[in-house]
Amino acid sequence: MITRSHFDIELGSLQEKMLEMATCADNMVGLSVEALMTGDLSLVQEVIHTDDSVDQMDLDIEALCLRLIATQQPVARDLRVIGSALKIITDIERIGDYAVDIAKIGRRLVRAHEVYQPLVDLPRLTILSRTMLHDALQSFILHDLDLVDSVIRADDAVDALYHNMRAHLTQSLSEHKPRALLALNTLFAAKYLERISDHVVNIAERVCFIETGDLKRMSTSAAMREDHTV
Predict the structure, then answer these.
(1) Is 125 exposed, middle or buried (0-12, 13-18, 19+ CB in 10 A)?
(2) Residue 204, domain member (yes or no)
(3) CATH number for the domain that contains residue 96
(4) What residues make up the domain containing 199?
(5) 230, part of any domain
(6) What does the radius of gyration of the chain's CA atoms come to, in whole angstroms?
(7) Helix locations, the chain, DSSP H
């Protein structure tokens, strides 16, 4: 059994490792969209390489959480923090995976000799999703439930923008055959960004659980997220 002071240090280390992992995933999202828009294959490789690091962080943090549970037998808020960390890193790992998927779309377009065109405002959707992630992480660091609420509200904006994009790109698929490949792949990228925002909502909900002990779904757009079609 480790001492309380040592346990607090370990919890601080856990938080730092989680933030490092989330920062890597966030950078991957930005680079992946840049790779898609510019066709820069070096960025694709950077995203894929970083994903290996994120996956290793996921394993390391999981091991730390399990060790803390086994050695300290935490209760109350401490247990909520560690249990939520195990959930949060899963969401962060999935965000990294979606970034890889977006980067690979950029590579696919390059190989098809397809030049990216701004059929929809993909950068705006990217900014919204990444801002949500930043706010969710800040809510975790600062124990700020107002930021949790901000994340939940922002998810509605992401969903609305994505559904508008989907309608526009679906129309492009039928009306502009020469741009069909680009429209389809842009649609997939937009969907991945929307999924990223869903994982950020999961993180925000876990922060709420840590602070209140109340585990519940908070998003008002749950019906939209249950739509698994592209």
Answers:
(1) buried
(2) yes
(3) 1.20.58.220
(4) 4-225
(5) no
(6) 19
(7) 4-38, 41-72, 76-111, 122-142, 145-175, 180-212, 222-225
Give me the residue label for tokens 């930005």. 30
- The predicted pLDDT at position 58 comes to 98
Q: 66-95: per-residue pLDDT in tens?
A: 999 999 889 999 999 999 999 999 999 999
Residue % of the chain over a pLDDT of 90: 86
| DSSP state for residue 113 in the 8-state scheme | T
Question: Domain total for the chain?
Answer: 1
Q: CA 67, 69, 73, 74 torsion: positive or negative?
A: positive
What distance in Å separates the CA atoms of residue 183 and residue 174, rounded to the nearest whole number? 10
pTM above 0.70, yes or no: yes
d(CA 100, CA 51): 7
d(CA 101, CA 117): 19
User: Which two structure tokens, joined as six digits, stand for 10?
Assistant: 């370990």
Residue 62 belongs to some domain of the structure: yes
Residue 2 has pLDDT above 90, yes or no: no
3-class DSSP assignment, residue 226: coil
For residue 105, the Cα-to-chain-centroid distance in whole angstroms is 17
**CA nearest neighbour of 16 among 80, 64, 77:** 64
Amino acid, res. 79:
L
CA distance 26 to 130: 7
Instruction: Please write the tens of the pLDDT for every residue from 95-142.
Output: 999 999 999 999 999 999 999 999 999 999 999 999 999 999 999 999
